[in-house]
């Protein structure tokens, strides 16, 4: 348990609960459960039993029941990807996203992509929203249009210079249709590739595949934009080389043309006129290098960047990370003016566009899509990565209990389980304990990372590494 010095600033109720926990007979097991969740902020509580039997003899090999646990409950991690909700589970999600994206860049046979994939043309593309009105920003070495040189953490960054004329309706409708814009972009991209290759769409599809992995990110102004790894593959996906005509330049030109073609029309409703939604003019397409071989961005940097934003959402703009029922709640929650007006626009527009569910996604400033997505052939899946981790932990548990591997030849075990939901969350003392455990885990990770970075390069004598 963390030393008593760190308990000095606790409020009386939390301190009393910490002392209650520390003196309880099940404290060690509670601490162990919380550590196994990684210090999860809002763990799920389960009640139930498991029985492992020999299928032939019926002999009971192992039993487990939450009746023996403190409070009769087992805690498991919530699995929430939002860093604002659960930093521990978000760290795991970011790690999975990193490995998913990286496997599609450098290759990983265990994750469905060969190492030869590094020879395929691939780019890192950023597609942004158009302007809805001038906002405070940091344009290079020049001052903002307001005449001020804003600092990086200035609260006014991203807020409108003239809120009265800012197109709040256009901003939330664009966010709400951003996933449709992306879908049409992928359709037009394949058409543009075929046109540049001088082939029919069918012939181009039979000769090549286009794979992608993307993540959504909110700009400070509250508009969503997408970062995407886009890769050329052969006809059989990542296992086959792309045709000779599938070059980096062709892919880059096709991306720019496809983005320019996309239009999503929004019908008029009430006093709102018809709108034609498009991508913004700030389209960035960069080739991805192989671990710093001269290109501007590397595979490692791309995977890290995508993973970083996979755990963030609209709360980075000052809004909240849960649904808002009405405008009065925005005052109680003390939401800043700019995100508040975006949320209010969602609530006002909901009756006009009920099928767009703007009220349900008002806290997301209208965006209703997935934050990280990929095409089928890009690499592995998040579900597969989670299953691999679960299988590894299950194998560790079987080894500790002396149980046979069910996949082994001749294994005849059968496990019957019965589980039920019993709540979620922590008591005040458990919450403090989880936070302390999470900090310890993060410190250990950082220490291990620094130790790894301090090691000499492979095949380099330690003395030379130290001298360098």
Give the CA-CA distance, first to last residue: 41 Å
Question: Which spans have pLDDT < 50 for at least 5 consecutive residues?
Answer: 457-468
Please tally the helical runs, counting DSSP H or I stretches of 4 or more residues: 13
Structural class by helix and strand composition? alpha+beta
Rg for CA atoms: 26 Å
Order of helices and strands: HHEEEHEHHHEEHEEEEHHHEHEHH
Architecture overview:
It comes from Streptomyces rishiriensis. InterPro entries: RepSA (IPR046828), RepSA_streptomyces (IPR048241). This is Replication initiation protein. The chain has 468 residues and is of the alpha+beta class. It has a domain at 87-132 and 167-321 and 367-374. The protein has 13 helices and twelve strands. The strands form three sheets. A six-stranded mixed beta sheet has the order 10-9-4-6-5-11. A hairpin with a 5-residue loop joins strand 1 (44-54) and strand 2 (60-65). Helix 1 (12-23) packs across helix 12 (428-454), helix 2 crosses helix 12 and helix 5 (178-197) crosses helix 7. The longest helix has 27 residues, at 428-454. It is globular, with a radius of gyration of 26 Å. The model is unreliable at 457-468 (pLDDT under 50).
